Amino acid sequence: MGTPILGAPIAHALDLEVLEIVKDLASRGVMPRLVALTAGNDAASEVYLGRQAKSASRLGMAYEVRRASAPTEAAFLAEIDSLNADPLVSGVIIQMPLPQGVKAETLQSRLSPDKDVEGVHPTNLGRLLEVSPVVAPCTAAAVIECLLAADVELRGSEIVVVGRSRIVGRPAALLLVERDATVTLAHSRSRDLAAITRRADVVVMAVGRAGLLTPAMIRPNAVVIDVGINEVMKDGKRSLLGDAAPEIADVASAFTPVPGGVGPVTVALLWRNAARLARKAYDSNR
Ligand code: NAP
Known about the structure:
A hairpin with a 2-residue loop joins strand 9 and strand 10. The protein is of the alpha/beta class and 286 residues long. It is 39% helix and 17% strand. The structure holds NADP nicotinamide-adenine-dinucleotide phosphate. NADP nicotinamide-adenine-dinucleotide phosphate is lined by residues 139, 162-165, 168-169, 186-190, 193, 206-209, 212, 227-230, 262-263, 266.
């Protein structure tokens, strides 16, 4: 049985890193200030907003929820323009889901890259081509943090990332290349996925198809990082499954469970991005 790579202790270590940055900024009289922008009519969003408020207070950051005046793109863009212009706001979270007709990418591109705590502004995605970017998309960065925490050798390793989305698979592949891995980026048009994944020392699944990766598709003792979150009905109950079949644990040397693996690390990285952007803003205004 492979070792589960649990997200909670990794998230805890990241929190300590954030607290260090916040403490350092506090000693200079600065407190990071985050704003979550929402339409304000979605029950699930309200739960997330409540959790974000608690995390912000635990990490010593100011936090505020801003509601767009109408569920339209124009109203969101006006709010973003005002947040961009506000020197007291160091970071903005654009809360999903957005109302129908409001495109996430349009809003994300309008936000200043210096306040983009999710790391998804085109400028910040472009900066992933540079060494040591300040922020990266949280889920992609979480893949790296899980591998580092599990002491997985990245230099020279064969890593297959399955899924090439703009904010998960592609940036994860770039971050892995930066760590000297030999990376293959597979997707829905890849021929013979099993032959590709079987070559890998590490398989990163970022697809959104429950159980796509089966034990026969990995080599013995490979490491599996499972980004996928798939809600499935089992025996009349809702449950969450990853993109890797649970039986992967019998063949892998280590794997991230779903839930409890990549997810908590992704959340922690939002706060690290927020802290890093606040520090960068302070440094560039000195
Ligand atoms: P996405 O935008 O839908 O992209 C999915 C990718 O998977 C695409 O590149 C697609 O290929 C590829 N794909 C689809 N079917 C495939 C198949 N049969 N074989 C190989 N590749 C296939 O999804 P995403 O936003 O990247 O999210 C991926 C998963 O991660 C989802 O389950 C999502 O819920 C989860 N997620 C988790 C977290 C977390 O914190 N853990 C955060 C964000 C997302 P094409 O490009 O060819 O279409």
